[in-house]
Design a protein that fits this description.
114 residues
Length: 114
């Protein structure tokens, strides 16, 4: 087995970097959610933020494992494995953010009612 990149365009490496940036963005969003959501939503913001941090870490790990599998398959000229786990983890994290945003809008909206 070789550790050299499979192709000159480095497409698998670029894909890995893109997934890592996406996971980093989700993790930063989770930390901001904890910091800014805590005064309004309290423990709910912390729980959702921690769940999103865990999802970001899981997606990061899955992306790294997927890159390694793809690299091995490409260098061995075998069939590439299927994808979808990273997309599911990120979508789940964004869904949690949406639920937290809806809860925040409801709580802040109720506070402003006469």
């Amino acid at each position: 087995m070789t550790d050299a990149p499979f192709d000159a365009g480095l497409q698998p490496e670029r894909t890995l970097l893109a997934w890592r940036r996406t996971c980093l963005a989700l993790a930063v969003g989770a930390m901001i959610t904890i910091r800014l959501g805590a005064p309004t939503l309290g423990l709910l913001a912390g729980i959702i933020g921690i769940i999103c941090l865990a999802l970001a870490a899981a997606a990061y790990a899955v992306s790294t494992l997927r890159y390694r599998r793809v690299h091995l398959e490409l260098t061995a000229s075998r069939t590439l494995p299927g994808a979808g786990t990273q997309i599911g983890l990120i979508a789940l994290g964004v869904g949690f953010f949406g639920a937290l945003a809806a809860a925040w809008v409801i709580v802040v909206g109720l506070d402003r009612l006469p």
